[in-house]
Amino acid sequence: MITLCKELFPILRSITGNGVRESLGIIQKIIPLQIREVPSGTQVFDWTVPKEWNVKDAYVIDLNTGEKIIDFKKSNLHLIGYAIPTDKIVDFEELNEHLFTLENQPDGIPYITSYYKERWGFCIDYNSYKKINRTSKFKVLIDSELKDGSLTFGELLIPGASEKEIFISTYICHPSMVNNELSGPAVATFLAKWILENKERKYSYRFVFIPETIGSITYLSLHLDDLKSKVIGGYNISCVGDERNYSYIPSRYGNTLSDKIALHVLDNSVKYRKYTFLDRGSDERQYCAPGVDLPICSILRTKFGDYPEYHTSLDNFDVVTEEGLRGSLEIYKKCIRLFEMNFVPKVKVLGEPQLGKRGLYPTMSTKSSGAMVRDMMNFIAYADGTNDLIDICNIIGIPTWETEDFLQKLVENGIFEVLSMSERTPREEPHIML
């Protein structure tokens, strides 16, 4: 994953353009992405696919010294996103109106975009900004192109035994920032690779690599009816590369299967910070919008906007580490395993089943065997056809993955039957006479 991030890092990406295609082409060498194009001008819900933007070069030269004081080729963050073509001589007063810097982070180049209003501009670290000669004239060149082209995205559908889908989305539209951009596609790529390697799949898996906001809106406009009929859960993956924290952003009401699985995995695996949907900021905004209402939430490391390097050139490989990426991938693998193994158990015998005659009760009592029997009996006590696996494990206080040793034995010995989620019995509260 870290190797993939380093290969993608230098490429200029935006919401459209050749950088997106180049990046998807690199990912396509690892997983069999299908690359799609949607023409500029296409109406997508309340939005319109914008013109395509590409850049050959951009710089500012101090004409007194001949020095390039800003050079797009040294960092693509120097140029604001969607900057229009510009070739002019300006004084400092005019140049300054088009410069963006961060006085409180003097070593960082800010990330600035102007997707839907035409303007030109450059970003510069504050230390360099202070050194600009205010009396000079400056040559400004932006060799960019805005044209009718297309918006590009990648998708991969991994079929399973069921047409019901788990939907995984990540964005691929930011220039050289590692956590806010590249960690998501890296983890999503290797999560898809892992799923492809596991041939026995209950569910189908749909992965999309899209430009943020306009990409998810475009994808939903093309596939909403299909998604609403098939998607039973999923996640929007972003900011998953650092080691500082884990975070959880729920779906709009926090009551989906995706939320329940995310919380169970996080509660039993790591310390994390729980946010509300009011703290949203990525494509969960679109997937959980009224009328869309897909069961999508997010598991992150440190949330976007909550780490100091966010949206600056300081979001680099000092922030994102191999261990940070690995930890996020393992959490998402646990979520996928839980989607696959979740079911509704219903006991087939009345009263407490006799485990001894089925060889399920240990012949020697040890501390560990006693704990296993206790967990097994507690599990059986709530296997009444109203609870799924996650519900029961939450009630009895153990992770779902600690039930695997005894669940198969209980099924094989006829203790309970396996119901699908649709066969789940609604729980009736006991009627109390007052």
Biggest sheet record: 8 strands, mixed
- The secondary-structure element order is HHEEEEEEHEEHEEEHEHEEHEHEHEHHHE
The fourth-level CATH homologous superfamily of the largest domain is: Zn peptidases
CATH architectural label of the largest domain = 3-Layer(aba) Sandwich
Number of domains: 3
What can you tell me about this protein's structure?
- It is a single chain.
- The chain has 434 residues and is α/β, with parallel strands linked by helices.
- It folds into 3 domains: 2-50 and 152-339, Zn peptidases (Aminopeptidase); 53-147, Domain of unknown function DUF2172 (Glucose Oxidase, domain 1), CATH 3.50.30; 344-423, Arc Repressor Mutant, subunit A.
- 30% of the residues lie in helices and 22% in strands.
- It has 12 helices and 18 strands.
- It has helices at residues 2-8, 18-28, 92-96, 126-130, 178-197, 214-230, 257-267, 284-287, 322-341, 367-381, 389-396, 404-412; strands at 34-39, 43-44, 47-48, 52-62, 67-71, 86-91, 99-100, 122-123, 137-147, 150-158, 165-171, 204-210, 231-237, 247-249, 273-274, 296-300, 344-347, 416-419.
- The strands form 5 sheets. Strands 1-10-12-11-13-16-14-15 form an 8-stranded mixed sheet, sandwiched between helices. A 4-stranded antiparallel sheet has the order 5-4-9-6.
- The longest helix is centred in the middle third of the chain and has 20 residues, at 178-197.
- It is elongated, with a radius of gyration of 26 Å.
- 41% of the residues are buried.
Question: What are the SSEs and their pairings?
Answer:
Elements (H helix, E strand, L loop, with lengths): L1 H7 L9 H11 L5 E6 L3 E2 L2 E2 L3 E11 L4 E5 L14 E6 H5 L2 E2 L21 E2 L2 H5 L6 E11 L2 E9 L6 E7 L6 H20 L6 E7 L3 H17 E7 L9 E3 L7 H11 L5 E2 L9 H4 L8 E5 L21 H20 L2 E4 L19 H15 L7 H8 L7 H9 L3 E4 L15
Parallel strand pairs: 7-8, 11-12, 11-13, 13-16, 14-15
Antiparallel strand pairs: 1-10, 2-3, 4-5, 4-9, 6-9, 10-12, 14-16, 17-18
Helix pairs in contact: 1-5, 5-9, 7-9
